[in-house]
Amino acid sequence: MAETHAEDQDQEQYGVLLYYKYADMPDLDELVAFYESNCNSLGLLGRVRLSPQGVNVTVGGKLSLLEKHIAAVMSNVLFEGTDFKLATCDRPVNDNVAKECGFTALSIRVVQVNCDQFFLA
Fold first, then answer.
1. In terms of residue numbers, what domain contains 76?
2. Could you tell me which of 25, 115, 9 has the C-alpha nearest to residue 79?
3. Is residue 96 part of a domain?
4. Is residue 24 a part of any domain in this protein?
5. Is 79 helix (H, G, I), strand (E, B) or coil?
């Protein structure tokens, strides 16, 4: 029975989550700590860009874990009204495909740019 449960977890649907939020971010160190802790504990991979003017996030992982990430983000009043774009997808067929899509590691960076440049990065 343990094998069946493990197989079910391997078959769980994957997804990609994209969201951004224009807002004053008063404590970037706190946000970095949140994203490091939350994304690593959920096994999410992708890109998180933080700026004093907002956030821009594209991460991938198991769909159920992406939904947990959304719930955690929504619990912060800074993200009130954020439009989360969540799409289902197949797990990358190999490491080359994952690398092309940017989902081989978690990259969290604080960037110092204006909003027009920030969301093009």
1. 19-111
2. 25
3. yes
4. yes
5. helix
Which 8-state DSSP code applies to residue 116? H
The count of domains in the chain is 1
Residue pLDDT, tens place only, 3-24: 444 444 456 888 999 999 999 9
Is the model's pTM score more than 0.90?
Answer: no
Helix (H) or strand (E) holding 31: helix 28-42
> Domain containing 37 — which CATH number?
3.30.70.100
Task: Count CB neighbours of 80 within 10 A.
Answer: 9
CA atoms of 64 and 18, how far apart (whole Å): 15
Structure tokens at 18: 């994209």
Q: Which residue has the tokens 């004093």?
A: 52
The amino acid at residue 104 is: T
Instruction: Give me the residue label for tokens 């992982």.
Output: 61
Distance separating alpha carbons of residues 113 and 60, to the nearest angstrom: 25
8 Å CB contact between 38 and 69: yes
Higher per-residue confidence, 60 vs 102: 60
